[in-house]
Design goal:
This protein has about 170 residues and is an all-alpha fold. Helices cover about 65% and strands about 0% of the residues. Helix 7 (about 115-140) packs antiparallel against helix 8.
Length: about 170
């Protein structure tokens, strides 16, 4: 060790403390001081609710059960009508509407009830497996722009659902 190294190592703790105390402090005037103030009074507003309006503001459990029962009856009726048609799928729908056997509005949102829960679940699982398999293949091949390619695969696989949605929109127009 040279003499300057010995000098650094020989500083006492008291000397180090005095160095810390001599470090320049910023003045309090330059620091932002935070303040809290309280209002001298508060205000309370009370709104009185109309019991009749409150009771009609949302559907009751009984109302929802009634809607579900009606939707189920409509779904079964449409399912029977489609089964009695000489055509299948979209052609059957068109046939029934042209003969005023059902209104286009009746189809909106109930195709899932017509298909059945098991069939819907099966179709969703097939779609998910297909897209996941495509994603894995894109990952293995380290394809460029894999996100866009995967989106295209998912959209192409969803073409059947897209056609159903297009048909529903055309019928509702």
């Amino acid at each position: 060790m040279n003499s300057s190294d010995q000098h650094i190592h020989q500083i006492s703790p008291a000397q180090g403390q005095s160095l810390l105390e001599e470090w320049p402090h910023s003045s309090a005037s330059s620091m932002n001081t935070k303040q809290v103030s309280f209002a001298t009074y508060s205000e309370l507003r009370v709104y009185h609710l109309d019991a009749k309006l409150e009771s009609r503001k949302c559907y009751s459990s009984r109302d929802r059960k009634s809607f579900q029962a009606q939707a189920l009856c409509d779904a079964f009726r449409i399912q029977r009508l489609m089964g009695s048609s000489p055509y299948h799928g979209g052609h059957a729908v068109r046939y029934l509407i042209e003969r005023d056997m059902m209104a286009p509005e009746e189809l909106l949102g109930i195709e899932n009830m017509i298909m059945g829960a098991q069939k819907i679940t099966e179709e969703r699982r097939k779609h998910a497996k297909y897209v996941i398999k495509a994603q894995e293949e894109l990952r293995k091949t380290k394809a460029d722009n894999a996100e866009a390619k995967l989106a295209y695969v998912a959209a192409a696989k969803s073409a059947k659902a897209f056609e159903k949605a297009r048909l529903r929109a055309a019928l509702a127009a």
